[in-house]
Design a protein that fits this description.
By secondary structure, the protein is an alpha/beta fold. It has ten helices and 13 strands.
């Protein structure tokens, strides 16, 4: 069973048109696409995500069969499958070592799926496979060095260096969300304090927004929740921001500053051609990207070289994980 590698190349798998199943395993939903060698999704399947290895494997198999049927083909016309999963993974054995939210503990998920579908199943980290999708067919197409950042509940990251998905010797490379940024800062879910994720994730933004609202009881952030700041969510925040609320603007400026310093560190370490940003907060568009570009450029050691990183929005949306997972068997 061929698994994800940080040294193999994609070009070997593009010599002939084939169909691959891409499986995006999320905490709420399982999304599957049948993807051709040009990165086009030709069939789709979905299932709610249950908990536990047996139930998740069964739901994935059902969604895969639905995607194949939706494409009007048979399993005999499917070359292989790829699975993008959260948690700690062993890409070589295809096992999910631990994903607490999914109640997976050392589960040989790929083998379980493979037995039912009759095709080999490759395994990759969900952020890495989303990066692979964007690199091949989205915002990174035509480049050789790209970093994909997802701004959601946490800060996800995938690295493509010299045209290859880079995962490190232990498959855990790319944890940009756990770059240390603030001495004695907020407590992170990893157990440390001051990680970028605690400031630059959607969760971090809401924490900052509540802190700003608490200091400005006359702000829209405060009044929209009637002072019950635990009810503040992304929708209300961006509503206040669009209305020009000062507290919301202050919170967003702090957010961008933290994100820029984290990305500036990554830029000076790796000097990618493109940083591709997706996730819910990326929906703010140029309100996010314009000041972020300016700040990162100021922090870029190579800012006067004429060759500086481009910061752009992701192009594939929720399909990035499906398409990237489907391409794992070609790596």
């Amino acid at each position: 069973m061929k698994q994800e590698s940080n040294t193999s190349t994609y070009e070997e798998g593009r010599e002939q048109a084939m169909n691959y199943l891409g499986i995006d395993l999320g905490g709420t939903n399982i999304a599957v696409g049948l993807v051709n060698s040009e990165g086009e999704i030709v069939g789709r399947g979905h299932r709610p995500c249950p908990r536990g290895g047996e139930a998740i494997a069964a739901a994935i198999v059902a969604a895969c069969r639905e995607a194949v049927a939706d494409a009007g083909v048979t399993m005999a016309e499917v070359s292989a499958a790829g699975l993008g999963s959260p948690g700690l993974l062993d890409a070589q054995t295809g096992a999910v070592l631990f994903a607490g939210n999914l109640e997976l503990d050392n589960v040989p998920l790929c083998a379980m799926i493979s037995v039912e579908l009759g095709v080999a199943v490759s395994l990759g980290n969900d952020a890495n496979v989303a990066a692979l999708g964007e690199f091949l067919f989205g915002a990174g197409a035509g480049t050789q060095n790209m970093i994909a950042i997802t701004l959601g509940t946490g800060v996800g990251c995938g690295l493509v260096l010299d045209g290859k998905l880079y995962t490190g010797f232990n498959s855990f490379a790319g944890e940009v969300g756990h770059i240390f940024t603030v001495m004695g800062g907020r407590l992170c879910t990893c157990g440390r304090r001051g990680c970028l994720e605690t400031y630059a994730s959607a969760t971090g933004l809401m924490t900052t927004a509540r802190e700003c609202a608490a200091r400005h009881s006359d702000s829209a952030l405060y009044t929209l929740t009637d002072g019950a700041l635990d009810k503040l969510n992304g929708k209300l925040f961006f509503q206040a921001l669009a209305a020009g609320d000062g507290a919301a603007g202050e919170a967003f400026a702090h957010y961008i500053d933290h994100l820029a310093h984290g990305l500036g560190t990554v830029v000076n370490l790796l000097q990618p051609e493109v940083i591709c940003i997706g996730g819910g907060i990326a929906g703010a568009g140029e309100a996010l990207f314009a000041p972020l570009r300016e700040k990162v450029q100021q922090l870029d050691f190579a800012r006067d070289s004429g060759n500086t990183v481009r910061i752009v929005g992701a192009k594939l949306g929720n399909d990035a994980g499906i398409i990237g997972a489907a391409m794992l068997p070609t790596r």
